[in-house]
Known about the structure:
- The chain is of the alpha/beta class.
- It has 3 domains: 200 residues, Rossmann fold; 87 residues, N-(1-d-carboxylethyl)-l-norvaline Dehydrogenase, domain 2; 135 residues, 3-Layer(aba) Sandwich (Rossmann fold).
- The protein has 18 helices and 14 strands.
- The strands form 3 sheets. The chain has a 6-stranded parallel β-sheet, sandwiched between helices. It has a 6-stranded parallel β-sheet with strand order 11-10-9-12-13-14. The protein has a two-stranded parallel sheet with strand order 7-8.
- The chain is elongated.
Amino acid sequence: MKISIVGTGYVGLVSGTCFAETGATVYCIDIDEEKINKLNKGIVPIYEPGLEKMIEKNVKNGKLFFSTDLKETLNDCDVVFSAVGTPPDEDGSADLQYVIAVAREVGRYMEKYMVIVTKSTVPIGTAKKVKAAIQEELDKRGVNIEFDVASNPEFLKEGDAIDDFMKPDRIVIGIESERAEKIMKRLYQPFLLNGHPIHFMDVPSAELTKYAANSMLATRISFMNEIANLCEIVGADINAVRKGIGSDSRIGSKFLYAGIGYGGSCFPKDVKALIKTAKENNFPLSILSAVEDVNEKQKSVLFDKIMNHFNGDISGKIFSLWGLSFKPNTDDMREAPALVLIDKLLKQKAIVKTYDPVAMEEAHRKIGNVVEYCKDPYESLIDSNGILLVTEWNEFRMINYKVAEKLMKTKIIFDGRNIYDMSEVVENGFIYYGIGRKI
């Protein structure tokens, strides 16, 4: 089976590579010539564990190709995926200009029946707009070619994307015809053989499923952060509370970890977009508005603890900020809490020395040289007034306290992800601040 995937960002590149891994012939298309040239040279533009080797393997096996020309591959394919970006507009809605541009290009050049699938996260009703754009282009050409539009949202976690694609919890596909269902079922047949469930539904339901899923997870995070902040006031410990409620089978233990807020390419954007969609339909989502508000406030919690400890004056103080990406195993810094914290520290004339295993190049691209980039965590501790744990990378989990003590001016740890054992920290002579934890 041959497919084209338009857009070689995170979703498109991972999806295309994994489809190639299952035996499909995949053409990954992007208008960015530099990116395509790099991919053809084996240079992968994103960090995702295991992806580079999988790309190399499938290119070598003649299953994966990269091109800037959709027209060249279009009519060789049964399915065309649109995996282009849907960045948030100023009002929070998803910007669909790239999605519609892909639809128009398909309409201009298609010569036979095919299924056009939105893989990007798109608002409810996008499929109708895609269908209308394709049909408009066909009408301009004066041709009558049948086609179907489907919705197949992705549920990839950055850092675990390959496993998520190859071993999905579920596959959601919105379709309008039996013909489209048959083609999509054939494409996903390798996954069905391994017992992974596929859910066919109407297109609007598939579009809404992705937003609802991410919004539910974001809600759990903001809820736990609210409870963590209450824990500090009443003298409770969020870790004990988390275990107590997480053992309830109706609730479960996932996404119940308190911290300094969620970030990344999905949760912030999708929550905003769903809020906007609801408003457009005169049905404001009060809970999700609160989720977003809580998350923005939570990104300042660690800074507030720092200011309180130093009595409101951190001018000239040096802080070791560990972790820049919004989560481990990715270099993605979109909506990362680290960016908010850095901005607040610099405005108070503090000095920030930082280290991240993979995201420092991305950080330099975003914020330049306003912080000092260190070669390892301990270099950042020289003359430091405190460790700020922002991203829970594995290499940060076990501190060499003796080395840290010799390097630091003041022995303080501000743990934004609650990864350290408080008693161990205190036993080693350090002051500890966590999120919602009882000292």
